[in-house]
Amino acid sequence: MTDGTNRAWTMAVRPEAEPSAETFAMTETAIPTAKHGEVLVRTLYMSLDPYMRGRMRVAKTYAASLQPGDVITGEVIAVVEQSESPIHKVGDTVRANIGWQEWAAIPAHEATPVNPDLGPVSTGVGILGMPGMTAFFGLNAVLMPKTGDTLVVSAASGAVGAIVGQLGKLQGCFVIGTAGSNEKCRYIVDELGFDAAINYKTQDISAELARLAPDGVNIFFDNVGGAVSDAVFENLTLHTRIAICGQISQYNDEETAQGPRNLMMLTRNRATVQGFLVYDYELDHDMAKARMSNWIKEGKLKYKEDVVDGFENAPEAFIGLLTGKNFGKLLVKVSEEIA
Amino acid sequence: MTDGTNRAWTMAVRPEAEPSAETFAMTETAIPTAKHGEVLVRTLYMSLDPYMRGRMRVAKTYAASLQPGDVITGEVIAVVEQSESPIHKVGDTVRANIGWQEWAAIPAHEATPVNPDLGPVSTGVGILGMPGMTAFFGLNAVLMPKTGDTLVVSAASGAVGAIVGQLGKLQGCFVIGTAGSNEKCRYIVDELGFDAAINYKTQDISAELARLAPDGVNIFFDNVGGAVSDAVFENLTLHTRIAICGQISQYNDEETAQGPRNLMMLTRNRATVQGFLVYDYELDHDMAKARMSNWIKEGKLKYKEDVVDGFENAPEAFIGLLTGKNFGKLLVKVSEEIA
Fold first, then answer.
1. Do A191 and A233 belong together in one domain?
2. Complex ipTM more than 0.90, yes or no
3. Cβ contact A274–B275 (<8 Å)
4. Taking a C-beta distance cutoff of 8 angstroms, is the pair A278, A160 a contact?
5. Which of A245, A257, A268 sits opposite B261 (nearest CB)?
6. Using one digit for the tens of pLDDT, what is the confidence trace for B269-289?
7. B222 and A250: CB-CB below 8 Å?
C-alpha cells in the first residue's frame, strides 16, 4: 500500500506569468503519525482550481500568499487511516485543506465528513463542494435570478460555470454560456441544456450577445473577466446584476490588464457589480448540497469530471487549467479508495 | 425688457473630443406665444451640467441624443410671463427643461413650481435641484452611510460632490474629497468641513488614500472615474459600496478610455459597484429638498454658485466645466428676476 513516503508538491519559485514545470518541486518526507486529537489522512483526489494561482502572488488576496517552499494550497478528498480523535474513525471519507500532498496528520476538526449518500466522494470537491457552492450562492444569493431573466455565464463548461447555467435553467432563465472551443460550446447546449453558447476565441462576443439577447443581459455570472466582461458591459439592460466570482483571464498577468474603463455603462442602466466569496454563505452549504444532490439523482443536474491520474501529473494539469485545456472539473486521482 | 427676439444655443456640429466654439450656434427666432394649456416662460438662470456632454454623442445614453440643429439640453429657472393654464400664474417661478434658450412656450405641466421659501430661486437647479437630489439619493439610497464609514467623494468641490461630502459629515462619516486645485482642496476642508482633500492633479491618489484611510474606503461616491476610480479600487475594504454617479474624466473621450480591468478587487472585498440615476428617486425629492433647505438655513449645509453673466457666454462656460475651470455650481444668468 505504501513505502512510507509522503510526496508533496511545493512552490519552488514564484511564477512571474504562466506557471511552468520550474514553478513546482516535489518533496519526499516520511508519512507522519497522528498525535492526540489528530487524524492521519491519505489523499484520494486533489482538487485543482484557478484560485490557486492567486495564492502564488505576493499581492494580498483574500487569503495568505504562498511562500517559496510551501506546499501548494488545495482541498483534497481523503480517507482516514489513523484516528486519535472521537470525531472521525478509520475508513471515514473526509474533505481537508492539506494542499498537494499524499498524506497529512491534521487536527481532527479540520477534516470535514463527506457524506457518500449524496454522490460519489469526488463530488465533495466538485459539484457538491466548493465549486458547486460557489455556483449556488453566487447565483441565488448575489444574482437572485427571476423567471425569464437572461443569464450569461462565462467559463460555462468549467467546474463552476456549468453548474451556474444548469441552475439558471432550473429557475427559468434564458442561459447563454461562453466557452473556449466548439466542443465545449456544443457540450453546454446539447448536454447541459443551455439555450446558447458563444465561442469567445472565434466569435465577436458583444455582437453575439446583442443578437442572442436583444433586450440585454439581466444577470451575469463572471468567472473570466477581460474581454468577456467588456462585451457584457456593452449589453446591459435596466438593473443588470453582475457577480464577480473570478477573473481567470487575468490570473497569469503580472500587472492588472488594461481594458475599457466602462463604469458609466452601470449608470445608464442602474446596474450593479458585486464581488463575492463562497465562504460568506457557509452556514447554508449543507442545505445547498442536499438540494443539489437530489437534482443530480433526478437527472436534472449534470457534472463532468476531468480526472488526471497520478500525483506526479498535478503541475502539468494545473498549468493547463489556467489556459482552458481541461474539460470539466479538474481532479488529480492520487490513490484508490480501497488501498 | 425685450425686442421680441428669442435667442437659443444649438449644437451646430457634433463634437469629436472637447467641444469648442464651433460646436455651438446661436439662433434667433420670434418669442412664441402660449397656446391653450401652455405657459410662456422667460429664463432667469440656465444650469450647466456635465451630463449635457453625453447628450452630444451618438452612442445611446439613458436619454436621447441631440441631433445637429437641436437646442442644447438643460434645465432652467424661469418666470411665467403668460399663462393659458390654471396650473401656473404670471409671475410664478418655475423649473423647466427648455434647454439653452431665453424664452419658450411649453405645456404647463412641464413646468415645475420652485418654492421660494426653500431658498434663492437659483438653488432650484443647484443644491435644491437635480445636483442636490443626486447627492442626497446617491448617498442615502445607494451608499447608505453608517457612522464611522470612510467616504470618498470625487469632484468634491463640484455641484454634486460638495453636497455629498457635507451630507456625509452630517451623518458621521470620515470624508475625503478629491479635487483639481489646491484652492478647491482648501475650500472643501476649510469651508465645507471635509476631513481631508487630495489634489488629483499633483498627488499620488492611491498613496494618499492609503495614508488617510489605512483601513480602506467604506463608501465611494464617484463623479469622475478614470484614475480616481482606479486608486479607490486599490484601497477597498470589506463590503465597500461604490456609487457611479458620473465619469466626467471620460466625457470628452471619443473611445472608452483604457484602465485597469480591476474587477477582481471587488471579489477579494465582496465589494459592490452600482450605477444610479437621480430620477429613480423622484417621488422622494420633495422630502429631500425640505430637509436640505432646513440644513441650509441652520448653516449646516453650504453651497457655492459660479454664476456666469450673459446668455452669450454659455458655450465657453460649458467648455470650462468639462475641464474643471468652474468653482461651484455653474449657472448662466440670462435675465433679471424683475424684468
1. yes
2. no
3. no
4. no
5. A257
6. 999 999 999 999 999 999 999
7. no
Instruction: Please state the φ and ψ torsions of residue B61, each to the nearest 5 degrees.
Output: -120, -170
Q: Which residues contact B217 (CB under 8 A, 6 or more apart)?
A: B150, B151, B152, B209, B232, B235, B236, B237, B240
How confident is residue B34, by pLDDT bands cut at 50, 70 and 90? very high
- C-alpha–C-alpha distance, residues B241 and B143, integer Å: 6
Q: pTM for this one? A: 0.91
CB contact under 8 A, B261 and A276: no
Contact B247 A261 (CB under 8 A): yes
- At a CB cut-off of 8 Å and minimum separation 6, what does A172 contact? A145, A146, A147, A148, A149
Of A60, A246, A266, the CB nearest to B273: A266
Q: Which residues of A touch B250 (CB under 8 A)?
A: 261, 264
Are B120 and B136 within one domain?
no
How many whole angstroms separate alpha carbon A85 and alpha carbon A35? 9
Chain A interface with B: residues with Cβ < 8 Å: 60-62, 222, 225-226, 229-230, 244-247, 250, 256-277, 280
Instruction: Answer whether residue B9 is part of any domain.
Output: yes
Look at residue B62 and tell me whether its pLDDT is greater than 70.
no
Beta bridge partners of A94: A78, A113
Task: Give the pLDDT of residue A61.
Answer: 56
Residue A143 lies in a domain: yes
- The answer to whether residues B183 and B267 belong to one domain is yes
The total number of structural domains that make up chain A: 2
- Whole-number Å distance between alpha carbons of A308 and B97: 66
Contacts of B160 in chain A (CB under 8 A): none
Kindly state whether residues A10 and A96 are assigned to the same domain.
yes
Which ranges in chain B belong to alpha helices (H)? 51-55, 130-137, 161-170, 182-186, 205-212, 226-233, 264-269, 285-297, 314-321
Domain that holds residue A58: 5-122+304-333
User: What is the average pLDDT across B96-119?
Assistant: 96
Show Cβ contacts of residue A243 under 8 Å, excluding neighbours closer than 6 positions.
Answer: A138, A139, A142, A143, A219, A220, A221, A222, A274, A275, A276
Q: Are residues A104 and A186 in the same domain?
A: no
Element housing B25 (H / E): strand B24-30
Say yes or no: B264 and B198 in one domain: yes
In a mutagenesis test of the B interface, which of A160, A263, A278, A279 is the best target, namely the one with the most B β-carbons within 10 Å?
A263
pLDDT in tens, A222-275: 999 999 999 999 999 999 999 999 998 888 888 888 999 989 999 989 999 999
